Amino acid sequence: MHSAQGATVDTAHALLTKSTDRAGAYVATSRGKYDNRIYVGLAGGDRADTVLNGIAERTDLNLTAHETVTREFEQARDINSLGMIYRDLVDQAQSAKYEQILRTTLSTPIAQPILEDPAWGAVSRHLERAEEAGVKLETLIEDAYSQHDFTEADSIAAILAWRMDTLLENREATLTTAERPLREVNQDHLLALKERALDRSEAAGSSSRKSAVELAEAEKISPLTRRLYGHLGDEELAARIKHTDNELIRQIPSDVDNNEAYLSWSLGKLRHEQQLRQDMPEPLAQAEIRGREHRTLAGTSGTVLRRISTELKLRELEQTPFEQPREPNRLGEWFTPRTQLADPRLPAAWKEQIEAYRPVVDAEHQRLGAELAQNPPAWLEDLGPVPGRADRAEEWRRLAAEIATYRRTYNIPNSEPTLLPTQHLKDNPVAQHLRNRAAELHKHSELTTRKPMPDDAKEQLTQQKADEAGTAVHQSDAAAKIAALRQRAQTRNETTPQEKENAMSTSENHAGQERSGAAETNELLARLRKTQEAQQQAADQQRKLKDDEAQRRGPSGPTLR
């Protein structure tokens, strides 16, 4: 490209790749007098717009001092650069922790040659994998080292890594598939249960059996320990008698496998045992029952003891989780991991350095969120407007900054209009989590940032309420007056003929009163109808105002793609 500088051709064809700088691209794309055609070379996973954006940002190295200072300042303040530095500090702290654990577990004289071995990197990766799987590192190292000696080993670290790989695979499977009904039991309580189970298992034997034997000898009866079926419980003995009797009935004399003699002998012994129990004194019968129950009690104690021992062994293989901070990681655990800082085995010097650097990343994160709130790009439309509440507005800025950081980390161009591309939502759980948070926040923002009601609508609603108050007639009062008028009319209709004849003389006097009562009734009915009509109009007007407001708000939630 540089050789073409100064040359002019009719048509220029320029091939640009991600290694082309901006100055070279300018030379290549400005040589054509009539036409300049650009071809973009893409490697695996590259996009044309990403490559072109990179070329535009890749400036000439011959910068002025002012341009150099400005570029270095922008790079030092870049949120992604700060995040990479933070994660690098965490990685180095983790490596220092693994070295410290190795020295503590095997002693420094044994650990030092392993740390200096080139294969230490493989050991460190196995320790990282074990930590992610929840496997206890100290037990893993100790078991792998103590399997065999290393007298003829050329690389102790390589052999240790190979042994750890096998042990780790087995322990991952064990911790994943093991049934652990006692997993939630406290360690101290579990140890106390183990002692109690041991005591019950030891005590569940000889005392009750000894008393049964002594009573049997006193009654000159063969003790249950010497009888063929003395160990069977009463229900088990009855079931055995029934089964043997049925088998005896099924025997065929001509069958070569006929077992009639043995079954007859067994049935006789079983029935003799049953009859003996029915005839023996009650104290002896109860003592024998207690003696037989010791087997069930011992078996139960043994089962509990085995489960407790299994849980304790699993806990030796499993790393106990460390207590994490209660407040959420507002920078995103994927971007600035904080879980490792809760590990007390992390060297204190590294922990202090990480905690001191975190506010630097946090300050830039807040600045980016405020900038996005002032000048939101097109892809932030799916996040909705900034909420009115202060705490929700802070959450909006934090989430916007985290999404922007994700887009920069994965080189998502600003030309991508959606909040997060569909492919990322399918493949990356971080993107899915960000999308879900954005949907929830957008819904809240929509509900808390509605447009105010127009002034003319407010005036119309106020006037409507005033009209309702002026024309309203309490329905109970109107109904009472109408009932009284109807009662008076009914009383007049129930008069006798003589009363009607006497009333004719005075009809003219009452005519005026009747017209007055009818007029009063009609007036009350008219006012009642007017009140009902006004209430219906108010309801219709309120419904119309709600429909108009819903049209102004638009959809109730975002559509994230």
Summarize this structure briefly.
By secondary structure, the protein is mainly alpha-helical. The protein has 21 helices and two strands.
Structural account:
- This protein is mostly helical and 561 residues long.
- Among the domains are: 2-62, no CATH class; 107-177, no CATH class; 224-279; 376-448, no CATH class; 455-494 and 513-553.
- The protein is 67% helix and 3% strand.
- The chain has 21 helices and two strands.
- The protein has helices spanning 22-28, 48-57, 65-77, 79-106, 108-116, 120-133, 137-145, 156-177, 187-203, 206-218, 234-249, 260-279, 282-317, 348-374, 390-409, 422-427, 429-448, 455-471, 475-493, 497-504, 507-553; strands at residues 9-16, 32-40.
- Strands 1-2 form a two-stranded parallel ribbon.
- Strand 1, helix 1 and strand 2 (32-40) form a beta-alpha-beta unit.
- The longest helix has 47 residues, at 507-553.
- It is flat, with a radius of gyration of 46 Å.
- It starts with 8 loop residues before the first strand and ends in an 8-residue tail after the last helix.
- The relative contact order is 0.06.
- The model is unreliable at 205-209 and 554-561 (pLDDT under 50).
Give the arrangement of secondary structure elements.
Elements lengths: L8 E8 L5 H7 L3 E9 L7 H10 L7 H13 L1 H28 L1 H9 L3 H14 L3 H9 L10 H22 L9 H17 L2 H13 L15 H16 L10 H20 L2 H36 L30 H27 L15 H20 L12 H6 L1 H20 L6 H17 L3 H19 L3 H8 L2 H47 L8
Parallel strand pairs: 1-2
